[in-house]
Design goal:
This protein is of the alpha/beta class. It has helices at 8-26, 32-51, 55-62, 70-78, 120-125, 133-148, 166-170, 173-185, 201-205, 226-233, 240-247, 251-256, 275-293, 298-310; strands at residues 83-84, 97-104, 107-114, 153-159, 191-200, 212-216, 220-222, 262-264. Strand 2 and strand 3 form a beta hairpin. Helix 1 runs antiparallel to helix 2.
Length: 316
């Protein structure tokens, strides 16, 4: 288990509890009462820490190396029913963007999402979850297939941004993202977007236009990362915590500004501490959203979606 800086008091108590349990197992000393006291203190400390998280601490949690990624959610929700589809029929198959058909219960969905790696080798293979233009074009191809067969679309957003390299710009990164945004506004099937980690910049928006946009509790969604914002405004990364507060990028901030529809509650300590509970919460949120959308006609669906986005940022 890896711990973030603000989680060190939890680490200390967990180590104490572990030592206490070992003493109880290896000797005749009754340590039950001591273990119970440490457990109580551990629960209270966890509640205290996670109840008062700052914006920057939520950003750190969203990047936790043990946090589940897109494929983890898909495998947990669909089991063996997931069939991955590859390629944009133009350049190549982008490994940072994955997609395919899968079932939750008896309902088929087209799943699309950014995928990060678990170690150095897989992170390079997945390009650190930063798709190239062909990734967005693959996503659009799959959305169009879903529309053709009347299958709802579910997108999982977790990216530090679209790949900013020269070759990505040469192949039309900006156009690919803009095209996706346009096409998603008028797609004739329900779209449910779930932010499961980082939702940064146009890279997130390229698969983030939906009838329901849901954010997990310890995620962020913003036009720019706190570090980049800090380096632009202060010419240094040192002010990233101030930038995170100013950007209003957390789930409660986004809900308050009516830029997302709902927040999915995470287990105490983040999605990585109890994956099964996190997967179940996401499954319930997707099913609930689809139930609300499935009876709308394509015309009502697209009109409601367009009206929702047109009204954002409008004040009387």
């Amino acid at each position: 288990m890896e711990y973030l800086e603000f989680e060190l008091p939890i680490k200390e108590l967990e180590e104490q509890l572990s030592k206490c349990q070992i003493i109880g197992q290896e000797s005749d000393v009754d340590v039950t009462q001591t273990c119970e006291q440490i457990e109580k203190k551990l629960i209270a400390t966890k509640k205290e820490i996670y109840k008062n998280l700052t914006a920057w601490q939520r950003v750190q949690l969203s990047r936790h190396p043990n946090r589940p990624y897109t494929l983890d959610y898909i495998k947990a929700l669909c089991g063996d029913s997931f069939l991955e589809l590859h390629g944009d029929r133009n350049v190549k198959d982008d490994k940072a963007m994955i997609g395919g058909l899968g079932k939750i219960g008896d309902q088929s969905y087209m799943f699309i999402g950014q995928q990060k790696g678990y170690n150095t080798k897989s992170r390079q293979f997945r390009n650190f979850g930063m798709p190239n233009p062909e990734g967005y074009r693959k996503a659009l191809r799959l959305m169009k297939s879903a529309e053709k067969f009347n299958i709802p679309v579910v997108t999982f957003i977790d990216t530090p941004g679209a790949y900013p390299g020269l070759e990505a710009e040469e192949r039309g990164q900006g156009e690919a993202i803009a095209r996706n945004i346009l096409e998603m506004t008028r797609l004739k099937v329900p779209i449910i977007c779930v932010i499961i980690g980082e939702g940064a910049s146009g890279g997130a928006l390229g698969i983030g236009v939906g009838d329901r946009v849901l954010m997990m509790e310890n995620t962020w969604y913003s036009v720019i990362s706190p570090e980049s914002c800090s380096s632009i405004l202060w010419r240094s990364w040192e002010y990233k915590e101030q930038a995170a507060e100013a950007l209003k990028l957390t789930a409660p901030d986004m809900k308050k500004m009516k830029l997302i529809d709902d927040i999915i509650k995470e287990p105490l300590g983040g999605a990585h501490t109890n994956r099964e509970e996190a997967f179940l919460a996401v499954k319930k949120a997707i099913e609930k959203s689809y139930k609300e959308l499935k009876n709308l006609s394509p015309k009502d669906l697209t009109k409601t979606r367009m009206d929702k986005y047109a009204s954002m940022g409008v004040y009387n």
